[in-house]
Amino acid sequence: MEIWNGVPFLSPLWARGPCAVWLHHVHGPMWEMTLPPRLARAGRFFEERVAPNFYRSTPIVTLSESSKRELVEEMGLPGHNITVVPPGVDQRFSPGLGRTRNPHVVAVARLVPVKDFSRLIRIMVAVRRRVPDAYLSIVGEGYEREMLEEHIDRVGAHDYIRLLGHLDDDDVTDLYRSAWVVASTSIREGWGMTLTEAAACATPCVATRIAGHVDATVEGEAGLLGDTDDELTDALVAVLTDDELRERLAKGALERARELTWERAAVDSFAVLAEDAGRRARP
Asked: I want to staple 201 with a disulfide (CB 3.0 to 4.6 A). Which of 156, 176, 234, 266 is the partner?
């Protein structure tokens, strides 16, 4: 089993037994966000134009139908070789006893460019003008922390935007349970694990309309998606101020999360390997 995370191991050139490749999404603009320009261009060219030529006969597993479309359209991989296996949700994520008194937005991710927390801070400032008692908790660590702290300082938002750093699993679960909504302004995702973890706690989401997110939630039933800052601001305001909408989305989120189990993900993943083994064994 090869994990292709930006840079592949080129297993088709040396692996002789049954094989499958886990490729969660195309990295696209993440190269330019992480590396110097020349190296970024080289990495992106290799991922999208060179490496796929070695994998045209290799079974590939990805997390969502939207990510599959990216692999076909942006990397030219044959769709008939790609199997979608959604991830599961750990059983520790479950509904809690109640929400915070004031409208509470939670976001959980590494503090890195692809998660685009600067955008979420900007959006939260706009939300606060319309929902004066709302606040945002950001969980996670990363090399952008200092920059984000400076951003929060510049917009005078320290009173209602908190960088909580790394928290243990129990504390993260408690935050999901007490939040009114979970938010993500990520630029690229193969899925949206924080969306489905929160959903299992009956907490709906507001997130960017990107590959992965569109499969992790059910738009309009378990969460709201948006493309522009204004759309995401309006969506957050709606969820924080409309009790009926929030309750309906919470029920839909819980239903969505219950469809996702690690047992199913494991069986479906092994099925890909078994099919490749069977294909190799046939005359």
From this structure: 176
